[in-house]
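Fold this sequence, please.
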Amino acid sequence: MADSPIANPAPLGLAGFGLTTIVLSCMNASLFPLEAATVVVPLAFCYGGLAQIIAGILEYKNGNTFGMVAFVSYGTFWWWYALLFWTMGAGWIKPPHASGVGITLLMWGVFTFYMWIATFRLNRTLWLIFLTLWIAFFLLAGGEFGMANGRMAGGWVGLVCGILALYLSFAEVTNAAWGRTAIPVGAPIMK
């Protein structure tokens, strides 16, 4: 009996990341009122968080260290975000000082920067996703530290990042369904 093929969990994780990132980035870019960001809390728990964590666990089973670290890390990032706003909204904790949020976003930028280095050997679209993500984290951190328009700039870069993630998810699902490269993702930056 032949082994059955193993599905690629990356499109699920990319979709969870991309969709949630786009929704929050719309608020950060001032396309919608920041108060509308409350819709992101349940979305961050369920799709941005849970779907990525599941994808990361499945990447572990597939032996993909990069995918496992990325999806579990960013899935738990979304859970941190959701828990922060949920517990503040419930009155269980006080809103954190902007510098606390700023240093957290800055460290996520550092983490994303080192993950970006690994993407030089992966496809070009993934490289662009991580490039725009570390830039977005640094801009959002700058906004928390008082940089004028840091949040808005981070929101616009985050929108690009989320769109790229949805594109890569679409490409991987479509290419798998068609059994060929129908949607290009680009060659690696380095071989």
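Residues 87 and 93 are 6 Å apart (CA to CA). The chain has one domain: 10-173.
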